[in-house]
Amino acid sequence: MIRALDPISFADWFRSHGGSQNSLKRMWDPIALALGFIDTEQISARCMLTIFMMFASKTEASRLNMLAGSPDESIHKPILRYIEERGAKVHTRCQTRRILFEEQNGQTQVTGILVANGEVDEAIAADIYLAACDIPGIQRLLPSEWRKWKEFDNIYKLEAVPVVTVQLRFDGWVTELHSAEQRQQLDHAAGMDNLLYSADADFSCFADLALTSPQDYYREGQGSLMQVVLTPGDPFVKMSNEDVAQHALKQIHDLFPASRQLNMTWFNVVKLAQSLYRENPGMDPYRPPQKTPVSNFFLAGSYTQQDYIDSMEGATISGKQAAAAILQPTGYQVKGTGLFKY
Ligand SMILES: Cc1cc2nc3c(=O)[nH]c(=O)nc-3n(C[C@H](O)[C@H](O)[C@H](O)COP(=O)(O)OP(=O)(O)OC[C@H]3O[C@@H](n4cnc5c(N)ncnc54)[C@H](O)[C@@H]3O)c2cc1C
Q1: In the predicted model, what is the mean pLDDT of the chain?
Q2: Residues 89, 324: Cα–Cα separation, whole Å
Q3: Domain boundaries, the chain
């Protein structure tokens, strides 16, 4: 039922049920921009309604949570520890450059992958191959010969959206609204300890990381570390980092006028020209299943077929589905279903 709404935008679906334009602009656009980095005219009704069905049915799903510290410390390292404790090894900074394959009894089989190892490429052979790439990565990696299968060819119809993230450090507390004294002191953190949304800035969601994730981001003697996510990112990818930071600073000043009394002491800009899968109306059928026409080659990644949005949860679901497809011939099953399943 919800999947059948993929061809229309959330805005069209909302208006067809009597929803107002102002509600789209003031409430639903910031939500769509925060979730998928595109607005309600651009995002498919399937995508938004899937999320809200989950929020409606799972109490814990609509809780706003921030990590205690940086993603590296709070997500990546615990995952790495878990994997390594079970005897697996993770190699970073070694790009898979090419997939080697051959025809065996009329069936295509992967025979190895070429992986960058310093100046040379190293061939690695395995029983099963799983490519858990992002969209630009998988589009570069797949052999062009495989585009004869629609499951692979359709991947080239998928697009990724640009996004720009800006961090700005201040010598006081930007979101402290009540007391000028609290705003300007540097003995302790003050202000709003939550993820914040706005319809009045080019960043739809933002937070003071020194308050929400103090473990790594609160610094003694320093103030707010505002992180803002500029969406849609298209106009900002082309701008210089200095101009992007000044633009974000001006909009922070407009939202929190008293922060004009504070100084920005540092900034950092991260531009991703291709980030999330662009969840436009009508694109869902082009997402590939995890099982592919090549019997020992599987796909995972948030952009592959899974019912949740492009997110950590979506990536996890895709991984579980890939594991289930790999294990299918053995009779073993994957434990657990993740947060979401319909
Ligand atoms: C600014 C921003 C904020 C976000 N905030 C949140 C959030 O708060 N919550 C949330 O749930 N999600 C969030 N997301 C979305 C989340 O990051 C993605 O949905 C998730 O990372 C997708 O996981 P993935 O494994 O599918 O792909 P990715 O995390 O993109 O991983 C794919 C990896 O494959 C690698 N790769 C590609 N080609 C090759 C190759 N040939 N050889 C080797 N490696 C290759 C890439 O370098 C990449 O590291 C955010 C995304 C962005 C950009």
Answers
A1: 94
A2: 21
A3: 3-57, 91-159+279-330, 163-272
